Amino acid sequence: MNLPNDPIILLSVLNTKLRDFYPSLDALCDDLEADKSALIQKCRSAGYEYSEERNQFI
Asked: What's the pTM?
């Protein structure tokens, strides 16, 4: 799956997928063959950090 390039749209897609389908960001990245550090950096550029405890970007 191609993930959106826009950080805000990406954030929305990631949080929806994390909520509905994946128990962790690692599981999402493994399944979608996505670069975890790149996703974290892109969301960080929009002011969001991944919370393992909540399994979402906040």
From this structure: 0.93
